[in-house]
Amino acid sequence: MADLDGIFKAYDVRGLVPEQLDEELVERIGAAFARFLLGLPDGMPADERAPDRVLVGRDMRPSGTDFVQAFARGVTGQGLDVVDLGLCSTDEVSFASGSMDAPAAMFTASHNPAGYNGIKFCRSGARPLSLETGLDRVRDLARNKLAPQGSPGSLTTTDVLADFVAHVRSFVDVDGLSPLSVVADVANGMGGLVVPAVFDGLKPRLEVMFGELDGTFPNHPADPLQPENQADLRARVLEVGADVGLAFDGDADRVFLVDELGQGLSGSTTTAIIAAAMLADHPGATIIHNLIVSKAVPEAIAEHGGVAVRTRVGHSFIKAVMADRDALFGGEHSAHYYFADNYRADSGLIAALVVLAEMSRSGQPLSELRKPYERYVASGEINSTVTDPTDAMARVEEAFMGSRRDHLDGLTVDLGDWWFNLRASNTEPLLRLNLEAADTASMERHSAEVLALVRGETD
């Protein structure tokens, strides 16, 4: 029996191929997903009708083609049709799920190394599926091979790229874009397909780095969250005098920006720029942000007339709060950017175009556009392995009993001129610290102070 608990993560399935994930297991997961959607045997979620088809896309990883075929066998064996979308970015699959009002599965391991593959799921209308909203039921149904149900479904193919391109472009006035010089490092990922398609015929001039689709990632890992994986892009921006660099992850749903000076922007800074730009056209709108973005994000939202709403970390929480609060936009420190008119799903391409449109409108280089939103110094996420995370968390909280704190997601303590969040990993004995202060010296001093408490290094 495969270790399903090990590969079913909070928001997706992910594992080594074939040690943890092979065709036989993928077929079982396909059947389980179909059975869950059909509501057999426990009934449908109250707010959703049973679908008649499942959309399936894949990234460029070598195992993707066989996995899609195996998954389709599992789904069609339960009587549902499968529509194969072919090679796609994750945000393209989300768009298909929203526009076609059908559940979907995307075969990708995102930024993980070449030996991995996985599956991201959504329900009809691009609604997220997590362990808290049904992925646990899929996992449990997949523990056994499910018998076929009724007549088998059909398998057809369709291409939604042209519609997706038109959708992405609809978020900006493409005629108002300036002829900016743009370099995109797509890291041999799905950005090599979708990024040129979106920019084709637009005024910004695009150069693509590592555009060949290659799931072995021969140039560098497709994880732009790590600064070392942006090094090639930063160097190329400086070499050619580009106005902006775009670093996409493997499934191209996230993007990090680099300015014309070769300096990267944090996800918080990009969130603030996009929020301010969108509030210019939608005054008074609600903007969502997770609780570990910079304090500059809610400050900028308020300064531009918006309503800032703070959430837990994670896309399922962001999307749920966006729906509850009728929010226009949401951003995370990890470079996930969510748009109400994108079925509340995230898209790095939409985010990139919105920033380019703001650069065009303002006439400012990105190095100037970013300055008003970079007010503090962040530690970045610092992981500590601890014997007992609960005990360590309690030790930290006791030390800050007199301070303003909350437990929305782990422990957040706000001391005015500095603050921190401490969260436990879902899968490992780790505590994750994010801290922000007024300057580098304060950040380093307070980080050392909190880490000493976390690791039990104080007297």
Automatic annotation (TrEMBL):
InterPro entries: A-D-PHexomutase_a/b/a-I, A-D-PHexomutase_a/b/a-I/II/III, A-D-PHexomutase_a/b/a-II, A-D-PHexomutase_a/b/a-III, A-D-PHexomutase_C, A-D-PHexomutase_C_sf, Alpha-D-phosphohexomutase_SF. Keywords: Isomerase, Magnesium, Metal-binding, Phosphoprotein. Its EC number is 5.4.2.8. Residues 7-133, 163-262, 267-376 form the Alpha-D-phosphohexomutase alpha/beta/alpha domain. This is Phosphomannomutase. The keyword Methyltransferase does not apply. SUPFAM superfamilies: Phosphoglucomutase, C-terminal domain (SSF55957), Phosphoglucomutase, first 3 domains (SSF53738). The keyword Iron-sulfur does not apply. Its cofactor is Mg(2+). One of its GO terms (biological process) is carbohydrate metabolic process. Belongs to the phosphohexose mutase family. Residues 381-451 form the Alpha-D-phosphohexomutase C-terminal domain.
